[in-house]
Amino acid sequence: MALEPPCLAPERHQLRGAWLLPDVVETILSARAPSTRRRRMYRYESNARVTDATEDQWFIQRLDHFNGADTRVWKQRYFVNDSFYKPGGPVFLMIGGEGPANPAWMQHGTWLLYAQKLGALCLLLEHRFYGKSHPTENLSNANLQFLSSRQALADLAHFCTVTAAVRGMTNSKWVAFGGSYPGSLAAWFRLKYPHLVHAAVATSAPIHATVNFPEYLEVVWRSLAAENPECPLLVKKASDTLVARLSDPKTYDNITKDFRFCSKLQIQSKMDSAYLLETLAGNFMDVVQYNEDNRAFEGAGGTNITIKVLCGIMLDSSLGDPYDRYAALVRMMQEMFSESCTDVQYKNYIQDMSNTSWSGPEAEGGRQWVYQTCTEFGFYQSTDSPNQPFSGFPLQCFLQQCADIYNLSTSLDEIVQQTNEEYGGYDIRTTRIVFPNGSIDPWHALGVTKDITDDLPSVFITGTAHCANMYPARREDLPQLGLARDRIFLLLQKWLAE
């Protein structure tokens, strides 16, 4: 579920469990698209090397904004680009999400074109508990209680208030930007702190929390079918064949070889098979979510692998039956990202995710983001709908991960209901927020795709994926993507004049 990051896009190292938004999130030196877990929520964050001279800057935040007796503080990382600022101009605040904030966004992206035209100061604030913003000594369950969207919004409010005072900009109008989960934060920042933020651009923002999110895979089906109606049917046949073979231990050696697993396949529980199936399906989910995007500038790799490429493989009968084509596709993805094999052992995943050290294998965002899904959002991209191509990872398997990793047993239904009560879900009531979404992006199913009011407009972009409008423009962009960027600018221009 994974964002992601402008869409602060994460890498594709399988962060099982977050299934992000995920915008986001980013072992970007190995340059993968976001992971399964954070996958669907990532956007402009990564650890990619950048050649700019943007320096880390630090801001003092309270650990707990809602407990006056707790005086503990920590340092939050942020970045500044003042090259476009003109006295009296607005302040643009890019919101970090479930991964390291990438300073490449201080030199690239559509928001900088807006800033240049409007004379804006540009800031990027990293989300607490991600990247280098470490509020606590480790990622223990006791410390993760301070990781929430509510605390993150309070971070934004305090940063905004103090920065405006220090820079002599208390009369300046602030505009919040974000993609994926940060897009949701941008909308909620405007909702909860209207006296601090004048307007917001909430790109690919899932503003309605839900425990079960099978619609994600329904959009994956439709996006594949838009390329070729036979494509998702063949994916389903391949998936069904794999599920059937998993019921016979005699097939395990061949499956291990076909998909290049890192160790001999062992299925001892439903969680073992669910984790394997969701990991492999993630190859399709990642590509669809970021289809034909322009993330290469931030260090993302594999951007040449598109829906057209996936369907080309699935339609190639010379590769064998649909199962063989599925295996060939997985091997192709491994080679693209220089991976010798894929680890599909659930016990290894749980071990990695349970590591509470800041140097742990999932400390870049996997452990944190999955915690947020288990305690605030859900967003679980299950196979509980018949109108999608996969099977074998139902909702219960995702809920089991919350118990296995964090020993959480609280009803997630109640928690998600509280989240929607806090922010309003689809019934968000405020003004001056624009909601861009792409038709191919599965996250649009939880976003605003029709105008709520004149001051809460939707910009629905046919044929584009996650956070497409945030990335730098290029010659190959669809005409409607350029028009969407223009419309967002006109809205900002209008709102800043109000």
From TrEMBL:
One of its GO terms (biological process) is proteolysis. Belongs to the peptidase S28 family. Keywords: Glycoprotein, Hydrolase, Protease, Signal. This is Putative serine protease K12H4.7. PANTHER family: PROTEASE S28 PRO-X CARBOXYPEPTIDASE-RELATED, SERINE PROTEASE 16. Signal peptide: none annotated. Pfam families: Peptidase_S28. One of its GO terms (molecular function) is dipeptidyl-peptidase activity. It comes from the Eukaryota. It comes from Triplophysa tibetana. InterPro entries: AB_hydrolase_fold, Peptidase_S28, Ser_carbopepase_S28_SKS.
